[in-house]
Amino acid sequence: MVTLMALTTSAHPSVPAHEYYGNTELHASSHSDEPVKEVPKETPKQHRIIHGNVSWYTAAEGGAITSTGHRCVAGYTVANDSLPPGTKVKILDHIFTVDDCFGGGYDETRFDVYCNSVDEAMRNGRQYVEVEVIE
Hints:
Layout: E1 2-4, H1 17-21, E2 24-28, E3 37-40, E4 48-57, E5 77-79, E6 88-91, E7 94-100, E8 110-114, H2 118-124, E9 126-133
């Protein structure tokens, strides 16, 4: 694949090429007879900080199934009602994946971290900490 860059011309003479083409790249194959096509650039994912209300939860013997249909996994599963499933978040220097929800319509500041035992959940309690949304 050959990447073409329009540096001095655009589709409209009064608009600089870099403004006209905006968030796209022009691509053409190595065959000169094939048309040039626009391919949208990927927008980089933004890291942001949320001042989170974080609690811990566990399940009875036999484990639990998340709202997405997966088995809860300590050190991996976190519940949040606003962030989409699969979103990675960093809580207290550990990266978790949103794979469950409360089901109560809480905002994005509320997190529930799955853990292995009631004792661990009680030890951690509720903490108001910074949560980094990674993707």
